């Protein structure tokens, strides 16, 4: 068995996981693996220097750890609420809530002619200021 990684088929996990790969297999750093997992699982030599762990034993440890440490959530908690303001049944004619701007709450809208008129001379003077020639700064 010259090259152990070449013998593993894609999608097939090896039964023996080397010590350097075991923390990554469990999704944790080496120090956390050393302190939290390693004292509770068996290890065995691989060749002259290698150390291995049984993948099934690591899986069993993780299952027990999750069972003991998992935080229960409320069963009626809805984590998938809509992110928009849209609520209710989408089959309705207008599923969007009717909202008024703050300005429209103060002054109810009415149709018709404006009662406030601008004096003709004021408008002409303002128009001249906007469209007129600018003074040179020099």
Envelope shape: elongated
**Largest sheet properties:** 3 strands, antiparallel
Strand order in the largest sheet: 1-3-2
- Tell me, rounded to a whole number, the average pLDDT: 77
How much helicity do the residues have? Answer: 25-40%
How would you sum up this structure, described in words?
The protein is mainly α and 138 residues long. The chain is built from six helices and three strands; from the N terminus they run αβααββααα. It has helices at 4-7, 22-26, 30-37, 55-69, 102-106, 120-131, and strands at residues 16-18, 43-46, 50-54. The longest helix has 15 residues, at 55-69. The protein starts with a helix and ends in a 7-residue tail after the last helix. The mean pLDDT is 77.
Describe this protein with a few key phrases.
3 strands, elongated, 138 residues
Short description:
This protein is mainly alpha-helical and about 140 residues long. It has helices at about 5, 20-25, 30-35, 55-70, 100-105, 120-130, and strands at about 15-20, 45, 50-55.
SSE arrangement:
Elements (H helix, E strand, L loop, with lengths): L3 H4 L8 E3 L3 H5 L3 H8 L5 E4 L3 E5 H15 L32 H5 L13 H12 L7
Antiparallel strand pairs: 1-3, 2-3
